[in-house]
Amino acid sequence: MVAVASAVVVVGTVTGMMSALDDGRGDDEARPDATSSPLLQPLPAVPTPSPSTTSGSPSPSPSASRAGPSPKHSKSASAKPRTEPASVRLYRHSDSQVLDWVRANPDDPRRSVIESRIADRPAAVWFADYTPSNITARVRAVTSAGAAKGSVPVLVPYAIPNRDCGGASQGGAPDLGAYDRWIEKFAAGLGSGDVVVILEPDATAQSECLSESQRTARFASLARAGRVLKAAHPKARVYFDAGHSDWHSPGKQAGLLRRAGAASAASSDGIFSNVSNFNRTGDEVAYVRRTLDALGGPASLGAVIDTSRNGNGAPDDGEWCDPGGRKLGQAPTLKTGEARIDAYLWVKLPGESDGCKGAPGTFTPDYAYDLAR
Q1: Angle between the 250-259 and 212-232 helix axes, to the nearest 10 degrees?
Q2: In Å, what is the CA distance from 125 to each residue of 110, 158, 293, 331?
Q3: The pTM is what?
């Protein structure tokens, strides 16, 4: 029986994993993404010092649980990989909890590992608080910085009403009308450069807590959001929530996605999976291909996969909260070399706790170091 779905723990009203507020400290250079997305190799162990203070203001920390059996693998798609955007570097935002920690702890023996393997990697920027008054400016600050560096920001709007079915990540807009207006303001900040939008994690896969009428209304709002984003900025690449390979079957998930507008080129460039989860990349590749096949729509639809913490795969016991023994996955890249797989991304920022090794949503250096070494 399917158990709890993936969820995003939101602490306070701060925007996501990497803060989307520019505090004037200046932009760091975005690092080029890996061209072949290798798994990070282990580094020598460094003795762990006594605990240090976690950095910065809290941010959302996606957490997920495994649910149900893994789907069988499908044969690789025969289509050629998607055309690359003009820019092939992913943007690393200059304001994040891990960068705050690195700057504040120059002598910590864990610093070099955390800096080189996590802080220097591009990751998604989350917008998880409902603040209509400044959302356009905050989005524009990120997209304009990315464009100036010739790199591609990854943005996560996360304000759908009744998100996380009233769980730890409850919040968002007060109603769907307010959400529709918020998305219009979000879209107004997208600019004119390449940008990837991860539209509302959990919004389709974790919709069964809603009544049928509520689900229908949510899916209509998501479809409208995709159209608004694409109309505001045709170069934006918008992806819809496909859960992960240990959740719904590809056929069932495709049915939900179709109702949410993910099969229409007017609102969608495809789907995303494994956000904050631990499933191996190969399992997710097989799953999203089968889901895309079941979804239908134009052949141009592709998928992106969160590889931030899946280097060792999901734990056998199904633990989702900061499970031990996990490792960083494939480096973020827009060059996967895999048919219909547009990118491997770090949507969940490694080292931000699910709530067991640190306060939910806070950067936890011991956890980050264990993932990175």
Answers
A1: 70
A2: 24, 11, 29, 17
A3: 0.81
Whether the CB-CB separation of 187 and 233 falls below 8 Å is answered with yes
CA 15 vs. chain centroid, Å, equals 13
Strand, coil or helix: what is 211?
A: coil
Does residue 256 contact residue 207 with C-beta atoms inside 8 Å?
Answer: yes
Q: Which of 11, 107, 97 is nearest to 54 (CA)?
A: 97
Task: Report CA Rg, the chain.
Answer: 19
Which pLDDT does position 67 carry in this prediction? 37
- Token pair recorded at residue 286: 């097989």
Alpha-carbon span 144 to 236, nearest angstrom: 13
Averaged pLDDT, 210-234: 97
Band of residue 167 on the pLDDT scale cut at 50, 70, 90: low
Q: How would you classify residue 270: left for phi > 0, otherwise alpha for psi between -120 and 50, otherwise beta? A: left
Q: Active-site residues: which are they?
A: 164, 202, 354
Q: Is the pLDDT of residue 367 over 80?
A: yes
Counts of helices then strands in the chain (DSSP H, E): 8, 9
